[in-house]
Amino acid sequence: AGRLSVQVALRNRTDNQKLELQVQTLYFDATGKVLYSQIGSEAAWQIAVLSRNQTIYYTSTALTTEAVKFTVRVRYVRPPR
Predict the structure, then answer these.
(1) Beta strands in the chain (DSSP E)
(2) Phi, psi for 32 (deg, rounded to 5)
(3) Tell me, what's the pLDDT at 67?
(4) How far is CA 24 from each of CA 8, 46, 62, 63, 72, rounded to the nearest angstrom?
(5) Which pLDDT band, with edges at 50, 70 and 90, does 1 fall under?
(6) pLDDT tens string 14-31
């Protein structure tokens, strides 16, 4: 459909703990402006829980063909209980 699509491998390289991460993709137009964002809001974070030595694939697709660049942000939350 001509829309920018992203796939990122996330891997837990620990032998003894699960990891809880949050992942977010920001899409930008040709001028560098963040798409789909209003003042005071940002794209939603998705939760990813990885078991020890597990790899998962995070995918995201832009909503429109205006997107020409992207940034994938990952942040550590805490080990699940």
Answers:
(1) 5-11, 19-28, 46-50, 55-61, 69-78
(2) 95, 5
(3) 93
(4) 11, 6, 12, 14, 6
(5) confident
(6) 888 899 999 999 999 999
